[in-house]
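Re: the request from the purification team.
They wanted to know what the chain is likely to look like in 3D before they choose a buffer screen. I agreed to run a prediction and write the result into the notebook, where they can find it.
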Amino acid sequence: MARASQPSSLENGFAELLDAVRGIRWLANVRLRSGNPGAHASRLRGASAEFMEYRPYRQGDYPGRIDWKLFARSDRAYIRLSNDHAVFPTMFVLDGSASMGFPAPTNAKWALAASAAIGLASVARNGGDPVGLILPGESGDIHLRPGTRQSVLQEMIRAVSDRVPTGTTSIAGAISGIARSAARIVIISDFLGDTSDVISAAARCAVGGCEVHALHIVAAEELNPSGTFQLVRDPEDQSVRRPLTESTLDQYLENFALWRDNIARELANVGVYYTVSVAGDEPAPHLVRRIASPRTLGGP
């Protein structure tokens, strides 16, 4: 009871977010092979209310799809074709490792990652798609299976609000584990951990027919660190320390930009929709709208 009366500051912000993303549609960028009736175009064609065209009957076609009234008028057998639609079970894989808590005073990367997951989940669920969450952690993984139940968003909000980014948790295994149960997978991470394994897992999902999105969260302080001397520590391994001075800043910025470009290119090459967002520079509702808009591979 005490928890319900004292929600976290992160949890407090979700009501406004959910209101801001209401009305956004998130249609699939790929056609499903099959699925339950829903809002997304399917590769299957059959007889449904949304009639598209006729084609001549061919041996092996299901006789139940023949338009018998047209057959009676023309003495030729035709199949009614339509665009069938399907639901898109959508799973969110959220990186909860220590680097996602940067910068420490604000946890800006984690706040944006959590808000993006909840905002996109709300949009998908409002469109009739089941949504779920995997949040790996050193103390145990949180796994919410895809569903459209009324409580699913509250369960996701509670999960991200209770989590404090820590440790060196891998998300590659979580991605591989949901390839068969999800039609759309959204990976939200700063990609500072098992990057190669994550890209490989995402590639396998994309090749298998999933629509895979990768949301790369970057902190403004990572893009524009202070030019004064500072000893930079790896949040996932405190023993790793590097001096950042005026003389090393330019090299850091060049390496960091090259690294981001390589990730974007590698993900696009394996069929993943890549988006980068800077925590503190882009409001979560704007980011949700950007990801939910029709996409092409290699787009923003």
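For the purification team: The longest strand covers residues 78-86.
Please add any questions underneath this entry.
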